């Protein structure tokens, strides 16, 4: 049973819940979370809150959704690595540590909280969430050193921040947010983690700059963005920003690496994989390992269980929108699938070094337990060493946890509204030309409104 347990991924162990999500049985999924033993574990509290918050949101229970997401937000803010976590991670595996969330998951909490507040008409709370996006951005920049080749900020969250400010009439801060989002794209050849700089974002930068009378900025960004401000007639009903959340985020699986410990002429130890293409320095922890007495032969080879993402292909690949005798198109705003793969790759070396050092501690404990040639109690020591070896094997496990009800991709568009009832028809097209129509009725009230639609299968 222990061996079977060690082979099951997080996705396998929440399988009944995940199947209900995939099949759009959100009411059943919402209830089943409370009956999943793994999600009830204290170390998985954040995942519990993520999934409960998302299901409540899909059920349009926006108040309840934000109860969960607010707790998740506080959990992330207060999360600390404890001595107990370090011990469990070292002696067992990282799946036993408290889950603290992927960096992009932390930004997505703000997105859903803001949507919930806007759906509840709580504009002041949505504005607070806009400011919290800035705090998360600052924390992420500090964490990564604000390097261009790292996930140092989230362009989509900055776009969402601008939309929140704009719907509240704060055009100055809306401009700053849109500009900051555009700058991220511009610094990275107009591409940010699988998303090309949206045409809508270009217009949002120029439009808000023009509204504020920042004509130098209009001129500057017209050149940088290689476009001009397109005149748009203001409609009496205001506008709708419509998000399309398509598909499901990738899930984590487990992959195995085999490493050997080598020592160079300067006395430096390095883990090298079987192909010789991956070399990871040995990070020593003086509490567990004496570098001076270490021999490469003490460790020999290590089997490393490491997470990898598996994409969940989207079913619907395009959509057409009609409203008030006009047609509109969605543009990509956030590619969570791309983000997941890219950010795991970015931290591969650091996490692999940590994993190898953890396994080395177990291997050295096994070596220390083995009997020497002149030992009298050889059988007992050999039995102990074998027990340590078996324990290490069956407990070795990659951390395959992640927020699995997030969408694969988020797209968006802006739709002008007439005063009163507006009928918006969306037709999604998927495999074998299968279609799914959705009709929204939006009351034009002269303001900017925000809604989202979701397609999983």
Automatic annotation (TrEMBL):
Please name the InterPro entries in this protein's record.
Answer: TPR-like_helical_dom_sf
The name this protein goes by in its record: Lipoprotein
State the organism named in the record.
Answer: Niastella koreensis
